[in-house]
Specification:
Blueprint (H helix, E strand, L loop, with lengths): L6 H6 L2 E7 L7 E3 L2 H8 L7 H5 L15 E7 L19
Antiparallel strand pairs: 1-2, 1-3
The structure holds zinc ion.
The site of zinc ion has 8 residues, from loops.
Length: 94
């Protein structure tokens, strides 16, 4: 992880990357299609926030200013196998 995320790393890690448009009054958000990015940029392309922001374009307002995007990286909990031990909030009694 020293080098940070790559496109393939995000896919393997079952990460969901959502882009938020910070353009004036737009606030559009959109989940990035990692498979498409992989086809376009290659699996080893760097996929840290600042790498991806430069490639974004808002479908709603046409904003393509990388400074006006924010990205969130969230594991896809539906696909990641859950470990009961990993959750501090899980009650031990069942
Ligand atoms: Zn926008």
């Amino acid at each position: 992880m020293a080098k940070g995320w790559t496109i393939q790393g995000l896919i393997d890690g079952k990460m969901v990357v959502t882009a938020f448009c910070h353009n004036h009054r737009c606030h559009h958000n959109q989940v990035l299609d990692l498979q498409k990015l992989k086809e376009k940029l290659g699996p080893d392309a760097p996929a840290m926030e600042w790498d991806l922001r430069a490639k974004l374009r808002c479908r709603k307002c046409g904003n393509n200013d990388s400074k006006r995007f924010g990205l969130t990286y969230v594991p896809d909990y539906d696909k990641v196998p859950r470990s009961p031990i990993a959750s501090p909030y899980r009650k031990t009694s069942e």
